[in-house]
Amino acid sequence: MPATMFARPQGLFDQLDAMHRLLSRSLGVEGSPGTIRSVAQGSFPEINVGRTAKSLEVFVFAPGLDASSIDVVVERNVLKVSGERSSAIPRNDNGLQLYANERPEGRFVRAVSLPDDADTGHVEARYKDGILRVSVALVEPAQPKRIAVQ
Amino acid sequence: MSDRNEIANKTASDSAARPVAPAVDIFEDARGITLLADMPGVSRESLDVRLDGDALAVEGRVELQLPEDMQAVWAEVQAPRFRRVFTLSRELDAAHIEANLKDGVLQLRIPKLAQAQARRIEVRAG
Question: Which member of A6, A43, A103 has the closest CB to residue B25?
Fold first, then answer.
């Protein structure tokens, strides 16, 4: 095996990338408002949240899981997603050479605090192409009510 | 197998649009190399695995059916595209690469050429 081909799986720019990731990790997520449950950038799985008039859409980027092994729990207006990802690297092969092991593995848990108008009775979760999408219905905003002055 | 650096993609000015390098596991056994890449949201249709000379490019677009009136509240994933390029070495059999995409994980199996598989050299005494 020509060792020089494999000695450096990462080039200079990837090292810069890694450094940048490390920096933004220690300094907090740049430019984003900090919520108490936000975690360091680069954590697994990453989460995006969007809002429509009718629902809050939470996208959990968690590839390589079995849908039945993902736990989605809503408790006191906090949405919690947990699960476990096992390593895909065979451990029983002695002749195996590992060049890169960047994919996170093991147990994970992430939490998102839901807004006050979340209807926690109507939550749907689907897993497709490695993304868990949780839709939380929002209750309709109360219509302003005029109170007649006697 | 080493990453090919793409200076054009790494300039600061287009950092917002630049694709993200997917996290990978790469390991080698006697018969070939296996590469696993995390590409959540990439479907078979939006995945592109391309071999150009000895450069193996893996690219995919994150596909989400988003409601039209949706507004982002929080975004840890900021680029809807993955891309990473690897340079294959000569003893690999690029013509017989197998690709498999499941639940957002791409698995590539790159076999070694038959003549490149390890041979044991007998050491003779004397």
Answer: A103
ipTM summary value:
0.77
Structure tokens at A128: 């497709």
Which chain A residues have a beta carbon less than 8 Å from that of B118? Answer: 1
pLDDT in tens, A4-43: 334 344 455 555 565 555 554 444 444 444 555 656 555 7
B106 and B42 Cβ atoms separated by less than 8 Å: yes
pLDDT digits (tens, 9 = 90+) for A62-90: 999 999 999 999 998 899 999 999 888 88
Q: Are B77 and A46 in contact (CB under 8 A)?
A: yes
Contacts A–B by Cβ distance under 8 A: 151
Cβ-defined contact of A102 to B67 (cutoff 8 Å)? no
Chain B nearest-CA residue for A55: B70
Q: Is the Cβ pair A53, B76 closer than 8 Å? A: no
Residue A136 half-sphere exposure toward CB, CA atoms < 13 A: 23
Q: Is the pLDDT of residue B111 over 90?
A: yes
